[in-house]
Amino acid sequence: MIIPTHFKKLTLPLLLSVALAGCSGGSDFGSGTSGGSKQEEVTYADVASLEVFASSGVLLSKGDNAVTISVVAKDKNNNVISKIPVTFAVDNSGTIIAASGNDTAATKTAILSSGVNTHKRTLTVTVSAGKKTQIVTVQVDDTKIIDKEDNSDIKSLDVSVTANKLYSLGSNEVTVSVIAKNENNSVVPDAQITFSVDNDALILPDAGNATAAIKTAKLSSGLGHPEARTLTVTVKSGAFVKILKVDIINGKDPVVEKESKVVALEISASSRQLFSAGIKPVIISAIAKDQNNNTLSDAIITFKVNNNATITPDAGNASAVVKTASITPGLNHPENRKLDIEVTAGSLVKNLQVDIVGTTVVLEGADSIAINNPTEYTIKLQDSEKKSLAFHSVEVTSSAGSEIIPVNSYTTNAVGEMSFMVNAAADGEDTITVISLGAAAQKKVSVSGNDFSLNSASKEVKIGTPETISMKWTKDGVSQANKIIQLSATRGVLNPLINIETNTDGEATFTIESQTAGGTVITATTENGLTATLEREFIATTPHYINTQASPSVIAPHGVSNLIAKVRDINDNPVKNMHIVFNLEDRVNGTLSNSLAVTDSLGRANITYTASDVSSAKNGVNIKTYVQEDTTINDQINLTVGGDALRIVLGHNEKIAADDIFYKKTYGVIVTDSAGNPVKDQEIAFTITPTDYYKGFMVPLLDKNPNVTVVDGVIITDNNSGHWVRKLEAACKSEDLDNDGNLDEGEDDNNNGKLEPSHDATVTTSGKTDEEGKLTIQIIYPQSSALWSRQLLTSTVVVEGTEFVEHAEFDLSILASAVKDLDVAPPNQFSPYGITADCSNPE
Questions:
Q1: Which residue ranges does the record annotate as region Disordered (predicted)?
Q2: Which of 367, 370, 446, 823: disulfide with 529, CB 3.0–4.6 Å?
Q3: Angle CA(632)–CA(637)–CA(642) in degrees, nearest 5?
Q4: Burial zone of 263 (CB within 10 Å; 0-12 exposed, 13-18 middle, 19+ buried)
């Protein structure tokens, strides 16, 4: 029989039976007695599901047309039931007539028409078999709908099957797949495809075929027809017909037969502990045996694991006696936890547990604190290989109810660390507990009646000027005299340098001075571990120059440009708290968000310029800036508003060329106008900046099937048995956050005194397009830098004051010939930025 691919399929749990009495247009066929057979012994209770298909979702009310409703009843094992009575009913004055041959057909059908009512409406068709009911809806339309029934745009059909043989017993199926293509060899997703098969077999199209690029249908041998035979499957679309053959083999699928022989299953694990870094997986082994305890190498064994872990069966399991699978913690799942592993062979299931271990949380801080004196603690989160775990949540609690600051939002930073403050309100004992990723750490803290504190007159300290810090220590109201206090600071020089001694009032003073601007944390520690901290900021106060930048400098009408003025002193320290005046001069009615801004700790003052709907001349917007405290320190920038639209396309191939110790890579640029026409003689400017850098080293990777020889007990592989690959230890963001080339405060993440990565690559600075709007440029970089940084290529075109920008991002690649010989080290053997798995470590 033939079922069109655009049938709507619905298979759902059925909730109620539908009586046909009183249903308009109702029709039934068969009965509980007619056509029955005791040999089949089919009852209503055997029906577990109904699959209902409509040949179309739309029924035209005018003209001679109808929709075919097809039904397949299945039992709980998904086998088709042919000898079961099925009834059809329709509402809203529709008409439905069951086919005459439905009594014994595997697929029951009925013809649906709109009846004498030609108005638009929805018809609900109810199909029932026993206690199972299913519905499908069809829209009645009173307008003429032209469908692509002729499939005139189809020029070819690609047809394939998942297997060319089918076993008659069991639930074995073959999937038939069809792709319709037009004259341009493009897929036609709305093509109408029909499937048919001879020799009493059954073919059912997939419900989603209507819009699917690949149309599929399930082929089975048909109920009650186990005999061996050859099936002819016909696939048709318009004038195109494809025919293929599938052989029916009488019997069960040998795979199923193999599974039925399994009577025993033995499993084991190489370890019951899996380390959270995932470097060494746990191997699960399984053996299937028959009733005589013989191993079954052809048994199918499956592996399963929970809790976000990953399990990978070995590629050689198909013919192996011992089937194995590797378990790893899963991508970005380093948490300590229990894994349940399930191994199945046939109907047998065995389970075992493996613990993921090794993730640790370390809590660092003082063992003794004073009441009402917030004290800092730091945690470090690491996996089993001591690799930092970034951006994971942490739970912090105090057994004594001490205040934890901040009160929420505990998450490790990019280097797997997090800091918080503990402020105790009462003396006694406290236990601070931190929990993350299934790991926990505790620290017992002694809270004393000590009042131990640091203070100074100014929160902001002028650079080059000593600031006096006072300290006072009392315990239960008694001054702690003649006590030695250790001193330290993250920035600045202390005087005395190492320690001080309290006087009879439990007080002491010292000074701190710095020649550079930035924050500092001053720490005082007693001999018994009591600590007090004080945060201060050193600031530069004497401006020397101002530098103003606009991003972007060319904007479209109604566009916005961000204006940043940076103020520094004679030693290039950022100057804080300077009042910067912004003054606008233009003829296009643009606006500034503010006329005055104050510099922050980095010496920056920010406002925005917003353009009107009028274009300006080139550099027609002038913005002057000056320091209000010293108007002789000033700067100015120019902006442009407007221009015609251009498009820039950047492209490249995968080829690079070696040139002495360098590599050369070619990029192509095409510039077109808004209509797609090439723009010739257009000047294009190029820049290249690093966005990321990588740490690691190159390692040999052997091929799966290397040529191997054994000489005097030593295994030797040939020179072509593998190649070099990058072993990535850490991926780090560029430290130069504002891409200004200056080592600014807070940018030196690994504290090595320089910005990383270096500018490894150079690019042609500018050029002009040819008559076809094309231009080629070269990027040059050292071979030793290949694979160790990511670059951003920027092309910029300015036309009548309007700036057009296009970007391309890529890793510096390496020549294939440089990594194919394991006897020769590649030119980029070690990353120039280190090999440790930590961006904060320059090693």
A1: 736-769
A2: 367
A3: 155
A4: middle
| Rounded Cα–Cα distance for residues 384 and 357 (Å) | 7
Judge whether 690 and 833 are in contact, CB under 8 Å.
Answer: no
For residues 615 and 613, give the distance between their C-alpha atoms in angstroms, rounded to a whole number: 7
Residues 405 and 377 in one domain: yes
207 phi, psi to nearest 5 deg: -65, -25
Domain membership flag for residue 434: yes
Residue-level pLDDT at 20 = 27
Task: Please identify, among 340, 357, 374, the residue that sits at the C-terminal boundary of a domain.
Answer: 357
pLDDT greater than 90 at residue 482? yes
Bridge partners of residue 369, in order along the sequence: 447
Higher-pLDDT residue of 643, 67: 67
**Residue 550 pairs with which residues in a beta bridge?**
563
Q: Please answer whether residues 801 and 618 qualify as being in contact, where contact means their C-beta atoms are separated by less than 8 angstroms.
A: yes
Give the type of residue at 716.
I
In the numeric block, the tokens 């003073």 are attached to: 509
Going by their DSSP bridges, the two strands 762-763 and 722-733 should be labelled as: unpaired
**Per-residue pLDDT at 627:** 96
Q: What CATH number is attached to the domain comprising 70?
A: 2.60.40.10
Strand 395-398, strand 460-462: pairing:
unpaired
527 in the same domain as 390: no
Give the CA radius of gyration of the chain: 39
Rounded to whole angstroms, how far apart are CA atoms 673 and 35? Answer: 76
One domain, residues 803 and 666: yes
* Together in a domain, 560 and 633: yes
Looking at the DSSP assignment, which residues form a beta bridge with residue 791?
Answer: 690, 810
Query: Residues 69, 123: one domain?
Result: yes
A 10 A CB-CB count for 554 gives 27
What is the pLDDT, as a whole number, of residue 126?
92
| Domain around 495 | 450-539
Phi-psi group of 412: left, alpha or beta (phi > 0 → left; psi -120 to 50 → alpha; rest → beta) = beta
CB 676 within 8 A of CB 773: no
CA distances from 529 to 398, 431, 523 (A): 19, 16, 12
Cα separation, 499 vs 678, whole angstroms:
74
Q: Total structural domains in the chain?
A: 7
In a domain, 409, yes or no: yes
Q: Verify that 731 and 787 share a domain, yes or no.
A: yes
Closest CA to 577 of 551, 550, 549, 596: 596
Do 806 and 661 lie in one domain? The reply is yes
Check: pTM over 0.70? Answer yes or no.
no
Smallest CA-to-CA distance from 327 within 357, 284, 271 is with 284
Residue that terminates a domain, selected from 448, 475, 506: 448
- Cα–Cα dist 45/129, whole Å: 9
Q: For 592-646, how does the pLDDT look when each residue is reduced to its tens digit (9 = 90+)?
A: 999 999 999 889 999 999 988 887 887 889 999 999 999 999 999 998 886 554 6
Q: What does each C-alpha distance from 564 to 572, 599, 600 come to in angstroms?
A: 17, 10, 11
Percentage with pLDDT > 90 across the chain? 26
698 with 797, same domain: the answer is yes
Residue 21 lies in a domain: no
Please return the burial class of 683, using the count of CB atoms within 10 Å of its CB with bins 0-12, 13-18 and 19+. Answer: middle
Question: Residue 522 has what pLDDT?
Answer: 93
Bridge partners, residue 627, by sequence: 580, 630
Nearest-CA neighbor of 140 among 174, 117, 108? 117
Asked if residue 150 is part of any domain, the answer here is no
